[in-house]
Design brief:
Number of strands of chain A: 6
Strand content of chain B: under 5%
Distance between the termini of chain A: 18 Å
Number of strands of chain B: 2
Number of domains of chain A: 2
Largest sheet of chain B: 2 strands, antiparallel
Chains: A mainly alpha, B mainly alpha, C alpha/beta
Shape of chain B: globular
Helix content of chain B: over 70%
Largest sheet of chain A: 2 strands, antiparallel
Distance between the termini of chain B: 47 Å
Number of helices of chain B: 11
Shape of chain A: globular
Number of helices of chain A: 14
Structural class of chain A: mainly alpha
Order of helices and strands of chain A: HHHHEEHHEEEEHHHHHHHH
Order of helices and strands of chain B: HHHHEEHHHHHHH
Strand content of chain A: under 5%
Oligomer: heterotrimer
Chain lengths: 365, 305, 421
C-alpha cells in the first residue's frame, strides 16, 4: 500500500505523513471492521492473505526481480513451518520462544534456497522450472517419509499440538488484554502478521532500489549483458534464491504457530503454483501488484465459496450447478480472463517508464 | 535375475505411457516454445470419453468398439485442443512469457471441474472388454495390452517424426519453430500451423488417455495432474522439444522409477525404501540437467523467464 | 528518502495508536461472537420452531471428492429423516439445517471453513473427513465450544489433544490395525506378510499398527513398500514383493489404489492373499480390480449393516436416493444421529448444555452400538472382516467388542488404552 502513493508523495512531506497516518489507521481498524461485519472466518482469511503476501513477495524476488522461474517455492515455507513445529511442540519436547525460531527459520530456509540455487545456476527457463519443481517435491517427500528409521518429522501424521505464538510470555492463542482492552486471538495474529508483512514489504522495496535489486533486474533482462557489465551473476542469483527463500521461511514459521498443526499435505505442488499465480497475476516485479495478487488469490476462492450457493439460489430459486464445482470453474475462469485482458498482470510495473524518465532523480534511495 | 527383467519390463511399460503423454508436450513445445500445462487434463478428457464410450456401447465387438471409442476421444480432444489454443494461448502470443502459464493453469482447473460436473466425482472402472493375455519372457510377465502400449508409443514417435521431417506440414512446422516471422513471410500461415500442432498434440493425448485407462482400468477427473507432471518431467529429461527425447526421457524415467522402487531399499540397507522413488527420479533429473542443461538429447536452450 | 523513513515510522506509530483507540470502541462487538456461539440458540424454548444448524465438512473437490460427497449425502439424509419425523427438543419444535462445507482435504482450508461454521453459529459439526483437516479444525471448534463428531478421521491424535469437544464414531487406526494384523497372522495363516501403504496419514497410520499387530501374533514382516495416493502403477513394488514370497499383502490406503493393485498382482502372478482396511472396503474396489478381486479381504469398523437393526433400511434408503454407499456414509449418518440424540437427552440444542450428554451416549447406530470413552473415542470398536465372493463383499466375521455375535470379544478394549507415539 505504501508504494502506491510513493511517487507523488515523495515531494510533499505533509501529504506523506497524512497518507501514512490514514493508511495506518485503516490497517489498524481493518480487522475489527472485517470481524464484526463479515465474521471471524473472513478475519482468518485475512490472516492467511497476509501470510500469502509474504510468500508472494519472497517469490517475487526470485521470479519477478531476478527472472528465475521457481516452481518449488513452497519448500521454503515448509522448511520454516517444520522448524517451528519441531522446536515448539511436544514432538521433541522443545518449546523455544518464537523470537529464536522465526529468525532461525529464515536462515535455514535461506540456506535451503542457496542449496537449490547452487546446482541450477546454469539452467534457464523451463529447465529451471522443472528442477525447482523437483526440489519442492523432494522436500515434501522427505517430510512425508522421515518418520523411520528415526522419527524426525512424524511422517504423514504431521505434528500436532504446536505451541501458539507467544511474545514475551503473552500467548496469541487467547484473547489478549492490553491496558484493559481485549484483543481477540485472530486480531492479535493479524497485527503480528501485518507487522512482519510490512517489514517484508519494506525490505523488498529497499532491495529493489539497491545495487543488488538493479543487478537482479539486469540479469532478468539479459544475463550475458549483465555479466559483461561486471555483475557477479553467480552470487547475485544465489542471493536472489536465498533472500526469496528466507521470506518463505518466516511465513512458514508463522503458519505453524497459527495453525498449531503441520503436515506435508499443506506443502504440495499446487501451493507453489498458486503462489506463482499470485506473483504473475498481480504484476511480476512490482511490489504493490504482487501484494494485490496475493490478496486476490486468497480472497477470490473464498468469495466464490461464500457466494456460489446463495447467488444461484437467488437467481434461479434452486441450486443448478454443484456450488463446489462452480466455485472452481469461476476461479479457473478468473485466472484466464485476467491474463487475457491484462497479460502483464493486474498492476504491472512501471519500472521501465521510470527508467526512461528519471535520469536525474536517484529513485529516492 | 527374473526379478530384474521384470522390473525392466515394468519400467518399459510405465515409461511408454509417460512417453505417449510426453510426446504431446514436446510437440507443442518444439513448435511454440510453450509448455502446455493443460495437456495432462486433455489426456484425462480423452480417457473419460473413451471409457464412457466403451461403457455405453459395450455390446459391440471389440475390434469395432475400440477404434470407435478412440475416434470419439480423438475428436473431442482435438476440439478441446483447438479451443485451448484459440482462447488461452493465441491472444497471448506476444505477452510476457509467464502469462500463458497462468492461463494454462486456469484452463486445467476449468477442464478438471467440467469433467467433475459431467462424469461425477467417482473413480470409474474401464469395462473389461479387451481380452488380455499374459506372456512369459525370461521368467518375467508381460500382458498383450502392455506390449501393444510399448509398440504404439514407438509407432507414434516414428509417425510424428516422419510427419515433421517429411511432409509439407512438417516443414511449415519446423519453419514456424525456427522463426515465425520469417516463416510467415515465406507464405506459411502460422496460425494454421500452430492450430494444427495443438490438434495433433491433443489427438496424441486422446490415444494416451485410452491406453492409460485401459491398462490400469481406471479413470478419474483428477488423473491428469500427476500424469502430466510425470510426462513433463520425462520430456525435460530427454530434452524438451525433441520427439526422440520425449520417448527416451519417458522410458528412462519409467525404468528409473521401477528400479528405484525395486532396489533402493536393498541398496541402502533398508534405510531408504520405495517411498523415495520419486526423489530418486528427481535426483537423476537434476543430475542430468547439471551436466547437460538442455536435457539428454535436446539442442535448444530455452530463453524464458 | 528522509520523508520516506519518517512516513514509515509514523505508519507504525499510528498503527499502534489506532489499535488502542479503536480496540476499545469495537471490543464488545468483536469479542461477543467468539466465546459464546451457544448464545445463538434460544435460551428459553419457545413454542415456535427453532432452526438448528449442523455443519458438515468434507472434501467436495479434489481427488477424494467422491468420498466427501458420500459423507455429505449421509448427513443430509439423516437430517432430512429427522425433520420429516418431526423433532422436539426440550419442548420446542426443532428443524435441523445442514450447513455443508468443502475443505478440499487441505488443512488450511479446513481451518477457514471451521471458522466459517463457528461464525455461522452452528450448534454442532459433523466431520471432517480427513485426519489432516480434522485435527487443526478441532482446535477451533474446541475454542468455540462446539461439539464435533467425525465419522471418518481415524488418526489417534485427534482425540488425544485433550479437547472435550472432539468425538469420533469410527475405530481409530490403532484399534483397526491391531485386529487386522492379528487376523492376517492367525486366520489367514500368514507366516510372512508384506505391507504397502500410501504415505497418507490414514494409510501409514493403519500400516504401522498392522505391522505391530502382525508381529505380535507371530508373523514376519518381510518387506514394507510404499506408494502414493495418486499412483496407478504398482508393478515395481509388487515385483519386489513377489521376490520375497510373502503369504499376505496388506495395503493401507484407499480403494482407488487397492483396486488396480489387486489387478496388477494378478497379472504379475503374485499369489499372496490381499488384505486391506476400510479405505479399500468398497464396491469400487471390486469394480476397479475386476475378477482379480475374487477372494481378497478387507475390514470395516463396526458391524455389517444388514446385521444391525435399521442397517438394511438405511442401506436401501441411501441407495435409492444417492446411489451406492461409497464408504463412510453410515458412520456420518450415525454421527448426526448421535449428536441429535444428545440434544434430545439434554433437552437443549445449546452446545454447552448438550456437550456433556454426547460423552454419555449409548446409541444403537447402524454401524455399531455407540459409546464413547473418556477421550471421545468409540468404545469397544468392533471390526468386521469381509471377503470378495462372486463379485461381492461377503461378511466373514466380526472381531472385537460390541458385536452381536461377538466371537472374540475380549480383544478390543485393550486396543483402546494403547497410545501411539
Amino acid at each position: 500500500m505504501m508504494t502506491f502513493s510513493f511517487d507523488s508523495l515523495r515531494q510533499d512531506k505533509r501529504a506523506a505523513i497524512a497518507a501514512t497516518v490514514g493508511i495506518g489507521l485503516v490497517l489498524a481498524v481493518f480487522p475489527f471492521i472485517v470481524g464484526s461485519a463479515l465474521g471471524n472466518s473472513w478475519l482468518r482469511i485475512l490472516d492467511f492473505a497476509l501470510l500469502y503476501i509474504m510468500l508472494a513477495l519472497g517469490l517475487n524476488i526470485v521470479v519477478g526481480f531476478a527472472g528465475l522461474l521457481d516452481m518449488g517455492y513452497i519448500a521454503f515455507y515448509a522448511v520454516g513451518a517444520y522448524l517451528y513445529a519441531l522446536l515448539a511442540s511436544p514432538h521433541f519436547g522443545l518449546h523455544l520462544p518464537v523470537w529464536i525460531i522465526i529468525p532461525c527459520g529464515a536462515v535455514l530456509a535461506g540456506i535451503a534456497g542457496a542449496l537449490l540455487g547452487a546446482p541450477t545456476l546454469r539452467l534457464r527457463g523451463d529447465y529451471l522450472a522443472i528442477v525447482t519443481l523437483g526440489f519442492g517435491e523432494i522436500v515434501r517427500i522427505f517430510m512425508n517419509n522421515l518418520n523411520a528409521p528415526v522419527n524426525i518429522t512424524n511422517g504423514p501424521q504431521g505434528i500436532s499440538s504446536i505451541d501458539p505464538i507467544h511474545l514475551g510470555g503473552v500467548t496469541l492463542a487467547k484473547p489478549l488484554s492490553v491496558l484493559g482492552i481485549t484483543v481477540p486471538s485472530l486480531h492479535a495474529y493479524y497485527y503480528l502478521f501485518l507487522a512482519l508483512a510490512l517489514l517484508i514489504i519494506f525490505v523488498s522495496i529497499r532491495l529493489q532500489d539497491s545495487r543488488i535489486g538493479r543487478a537482479w533486474v539486469a540479469i532478468r533482462e539479459d544475463e550475458i549483458a549483465a555479466k559483461a557489465c561486471g555483475i557477479n551473476t553467480r552470487n547475485i542469483k544465489l542471493l536472489a534464491f536465498t533472500m526469496g527463500a528466507s521470506f518463505g521461511g518466516v511465513a512458514g514459521g508463522l503458519f505453524a504457530g497459527f495453525q498449531g498443526f503441520v503436515s506435508p499435505e499443506s506443502f504440495n505442488l499446487m501451493e507453489s503454483i498458486m503462489i506463482l499465480c499470485m506473483v504473475v497475476l498481480g504484476g511480476m516485479g512490482h511490489i504493490p501488484g504482487v501484494i494485490l495478487g496475493g490478496v486476490m488469490l486468497t480472497v477470490l476462492p473464498e468469495f466464490f465459496r461464500h457466494s456460489a450457493g446463495p447467488i444461484q439460489q437467488a437467481l434461479f430459486g434452486k441450486i443448478l450447478l454443484d456450488p463446489e464445482a462452480l466455485r472452481m470453474l469461476l476461479f479457473g475462469l478468473a485466472l484466464v480472463l485476467v491474463m487475457l485482458y491484462r497479460p502483464a498482470g493486474l498492476w504491472p510495473s512501471t519500472i521501465r517508464r521510470r527508467e526512461f524518465s528519471s535520469g536525474t532523480d536517484k529513485e529516492g534511495a | 535375475m527374473d526379478i530384474f527383467v521384470q522390473q525392466i519390463i515394468n519400467g518399459l511399460v510405465l515409461g511408454s505411457i509417460y512417453a505417449l503423454v510426453a510426446l504431446g508436450y514436446t510437440m507443442v513445445y518444439g513448435i511454440m516454445g510453450l509448455i502446455n500445462f493443460a495437456h495432462g487434463e486433455v489426456v484425462m478428457i480423452g480417457a473419460m470419453v473413451a471409457l464412457f464410450f466403451v461403457k455405453a456401447f459395450s455390446g459391440l465387438p471389440v475390434v469395432i468398439l475400440l477404434p470407435l471409442a478412440l475416434a470419439a476421444a480423438v475428436c473431442v480432444c482435438m476440439a478441446i485442443g483447438f479451443s485451448i489454443e484459440r482462447i488461452a494461448y493465441r491472444p497471448l502470443r506476444h505477452a510476457p512469457k509467464l502469462a500463458p502459464l497462468i492461463t494454462a493453469i486456469g484452463i486445467s482447473i476449468i477442464l478438471q471441474h467440467l469433467a467433475m460436473l459431467i462424469w461425477g466425482r467417482n473413480y470409474h472402472a474401464f469395462p473389461p472388454v479387451i481380452p488380455v493375455s499374459a506372456h512369459e519372457i525370461f521368467g518375467a510377465t508381460i500382458t498383450s495390452l502392455q506390449v501393444f502400449i510399448v509398440l504404439i508409443a514407438a509407432a507414434m514417435m516414428a509417425g510424428l517424426t516422419l510427419l515433421i521431417q517429411r511432409t509439407r506440414l512438417g516443414r511449415a512446422m519446423r519453419a514456424t519453430s525456427q522463426n515465425p516471422a520469417i516463416a510467415q513471410l515465406m507464405g506459411v500461415n502460422i496460425n494454421q500451423i500452430i492450430s494444427a500442432t495443438f490438434v495433433i498434440g491433443s489427438a496424441l493425448a486422446a490415444v494416451a488417455g485410452l491406453m492409460v485407462s485401459a491398462n490400469y482400468s481406471i479413470a478419474h477427473y483428477y488423473m491428469g495432474f500427476m500424469l502430466g507432471l510425470k510426462a513433463f518431467t520425462a520430456a525435460v529429461l530427454g530434452g524438451i522439444g525433441n520427439l526422440a527425447g520425449a520417448m527416451l526421457g519417458g522410458i528412462l524415467l519409467g525404468i528409473i522409477e521401477s528400479l528405484g522402487a525395486g532396489y533402493i531399499g536393498d541398496l541402502t540397507g533398508g534405510f531408504l525404501g520405495s517411498h523415495y522413488q520419486d526423489i530418486f527420479a528427481f535426483f537423476v533429473l537434476i543430475g542430468v540437467l547439471i551436466f547437460r542443461p538442455s536435457g539428454l538429447i535436446g539442442e535448444r536452450v530455452a530463453e524464458r523467464a | 528518502m528522509n520523508t520516506l523513513r519518517v512516513s514509515r515510522m509514523t505508519l507504525a506509530l499510528s498503527a499502534a495508536l489506532a489499535l488502542f483507540g479503536c480496540g476499545q470502541k469495537e471490543e464488545p462487538k468483536a469479542a461477543a461472537p467468539a466465546p459464546a456461539p451457544a448464545a445463538a440458540a434460544p435460551a428459553a424454548p419457545a413454542a415456535t420452531a427453532i432452526t438448528v444448524k449442523i455443519g458438515h465438512v468434507a472434501p467436495l473437490t479434489g481427488p477424494q471428492a467422491h468420498l466427501g460427497k458420500d459423507n455429505e449425502n449421509a448427513a443430509r439424509m439423516a437430517i432430512d429423516e429427522l425433520n420429516a419425523k418431526g423433532l422436539e427438543i426440550g419442548g420446542a419444535k426443532v428443524t435441523l439445517e445442514l450447513v455443508p462445507e468443502d475443505d478440499q482435504a487441505d488443512p488450511k482450508q479446513g481451518t477457514i471453513v471451521a471458522q466459517k461454521l463457528v461464525d455461522a453459529k452452528v450448534n454442532g459439526v459433523v466431520g471432517h473427513l480427513n485426519s489432516g483437516t480434522t485435527i487443526p479444525a478441532s482446535k477451533i471448534y474446541f475454542d468455540a465450544g462446539i461439539p464435533q463428531i467425525s465419522g471418518s478421521a481415524t488418526n489417534p491424535k485427534y482425540t488425544q489433544q485433550g479437547f472435550a469437544t472432539a468425538f469420533r464414531v469410527m475405530a481409530n487406526d490403532v484399534q483397526q490395525g491391531k485386529v487386522l494384523g492379528e487376523y492376517a497372522a492367525k486366520q489367514l495363516a500368514g507366516k510372512s506378510v508384506a505391507i504397502i501403504d500410501d504415505r497418507t496419514a490414514y494409510g501409514q497410520g493403519l500400516a504401522d499398527e498392522f505391522e505391530k499387530g502382525a508381529k505380535g501374533a507371530g508373523a514376519a514382516v518381510v518387506t514394507r513398500e510404499f506408494t502414493n495416493d495418486k499412483a496407478t502403477d504398482f508393478a515395481a513394488i509388487l515385483t519386489k514383493i513377489k521376490s520375497t514370497k510373502a503369504d499376505v499383502i496388506f495395503y493401507g490406503g484407499m480403494d482407488a489404489q487397492a483396486g488396480p493393485m489387486a489387478k496388477q498382482m494378478k497379472s504379475l502372478g503374485v499369489k499372496a492373499a490381499f488384505l486391506t482396511g476400510d479405505g479399500g472396503c468398497t464396491p469400487e474396489f471390486i469394480k476397479l480390480a475386476g475378477d482379480a478381486s475374487e477372494g481378497q479381504y478387507c475390514s470395516l469398523p463396526g458391524v455389517p449393516l444388514d446385521q444391525m437393526p435399521g442397517g438394511k433400511a438405511f442401506n436401501d434408503a441411501f441407495s435409492a436416493k444417492y446411489g451406492q454407499i461409497q464408504l463412510y456414509a453410515p458412520y456420518v449418518y450415525d454421527a448426526v444421529m448421535v449428536m441429535v440424540d444428545a440434544m434430545k437427552r439434554a433437552g437443549s440444542v445449546e452446545a454447552a448444555k448438550y456437550l456433556p450428554e454426547i460423552g454419555k451416549t449409548d446409541y444403537q447406530g447402524v454401524t455399531a452400538k455407540i459409546q464413547f470413552d473418556e477421550k471421545g473415542d468409540l468404545k469397544g470398536g468392533a471390526i468386521s472382516l469381509y471377503q470378495v465372493k462372486g463379485g461381492k463383499w461377503e461378511y466373514r466375521e466380526t472381531v472385537g467388542g460390541g458385536a452381536p455375535a461377538a466371537p472374540v470379544a475380549a480383544e478390543a478394549p485393550k486396543a483402546d488404552g494403547e497410545k501411539k507415539s
